[in-house]
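pinging the channel bc i need a second pair of eyes. not urgent but kinda urgent?? the chain im working w is below, pasted from the shared doc
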Amino acid sequence: MKLEGSCHCGKVEFSLTSPHPYPFNICYCGICRKTAGSGGFGINLGGEAKSLVVVGEEFIRVYRALVQSDGGTEEESPCERRFCGSCGSPLWIWDPRWPELIHPFASAIDTALPKPPERTHLMLGSKPDWVDAYNRGDDDRSFEEYPEESIAQWHERLKLSK
């Protein structure tokens, strides 16, 4: 499926091909909450990096979050969060460990997205008390941290891959 997206002010527009267009992950981690200004919906789509076309690239900025290492020290994540430097809209995440993938924020996508038949609530261990784990359906799955199932595996299990 071709996804088209943009920032709030319209200075950045992008498109890419996604075999995994269902926005099903609801992430409650502090990084998603603070950089995207919400209780969730971090990186929940998968796209093909080779298909990415960007207009307004000069307005894009990159943020690398500080994360806890296994040894307990804080270090910069290799994961790059792209956002509009003019309006601050989160656009997508790219990680050099998986260079073939782009993970657009569903909030930046202008294309009508399909409604997922179930959702995955992840990083609930990081959820502050003021945030409710909302829209929990009977078939939804919940995890204190990250699930084993990838975005691609979720789509395959539910026979939603295109």
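so The two ends are 7 Å apart (CA to CA). and The chain is about 10% helix and 30% strand. — does that match what u expected or am i reading it wrong
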